[in-house]
Design a protein that fits this description.
This protein is an all-alpha fold. It is built from 11 helices and 2 strands.
């Protein structure tokens, strides 16, 4: 059976959502820019494990997450700094810090592997949350595909605007077909690994709006644009999103 058949759903689910979720699963399964397919599927697995991790739960309840030491409940497929990255991003993203990111690098990972890990984690969280909202079981994770990462470095990087290097706003704007200089930080955030930007935009176009539709105030959905933004703003507030 193809993934995301949604046979258990009592509500109709748009075909473009199904297609977007299948593209995301294929993207996760294959070798990426800096991570192998096995590592990427392990990232997806850790994203789910983090929700029931005892250490994450204890840290979330503490005044400071740095006050609680211990080991994550993990699957053994990733290095310790990447496990911590996935678990912290999944369970306590509002209290991340630049010092913490630098600590991951000091433990032996690279900033490129960190950003790619974020890309996979965001895809899994977004798709799993859809399933939870619809009262559907989570889709089994894909089987990892063989192959080696491309290790193709991003071009036109800018330092100092965020905790991680990003491509210039002009470069990202060109890649996504945006007016020159109009690539916001939320779009540029993963641009140290451009393939993750493309994957995120593909999913976002189905779950929210495409880049083209964002610049128009009509709506391709069953609700109008103001209602879409009301829901998006409320979700962002509940998730303590900030850029």
């Amino acid at each position: 059976m193809a993934p995301f058949s949604f046979e258990a759903s009592v509500d109709p689910i748009r075909p473009d959502l199904v297609e977007a979720y299948r593209r995301a699963w294929n993207h996760i399964a294959g070798p990426g820019t800096w991570l192998t397919g096995a590592e990427r599927v392990a990232v997806a697995d850790e994203t789910r494990r983090a929700r029931d991790c005892a250490l994450c739960r204890e840290r979330k309840e503490a005044l400071s997450p740095f006050a609680v030491e211990g080991d994550h409940d993990h699957g053994g497929g990733l290095s310790e700094p990447l496990v911590d990255a996935v678990h912290r991003v999944t369970t306590d993203a509002a209290r991340l810090s630049e010092r913490w990111v630098r600590g991951l690098l000091e433990q032996g990972t690279t900033i490129e592997r960190y950003v790619e890990t974020l890309g996979v984690t965001v895809l899994v969280i977004s798709i799993d949350r859809f399933c939870h909202a619809m009262g559907l079981p989570e889709e089994p994770l894909p089987q990892a595909l063989s192959g080696t990462p491309t290790e193709e470095p991003a071009q036109d990087l800018v330092e100092g605007e965020a905790w991680v290097p990003m491509q210039s706003k002009e470069r990202v704007a060109r890649a996504l077909g945006l007016p020159m200089g109009q690539a916001p930080y939320v779009v540029r955030a993963l641009s140290l690994v451009p393939a993750e930007v493309e994957a995120w935009q593909s999913l976002s176009a189905a779950q929210y709006l495409s880049i083209e539709r964002m610049r128009s105030f009509d709506s391709p959905r069953a609700i109008d644009r103001s209602q879409i933004e009301l829901v998006a703003g409320r979700v962002s507030a509940l998730n303590e999103c900030f850029y």
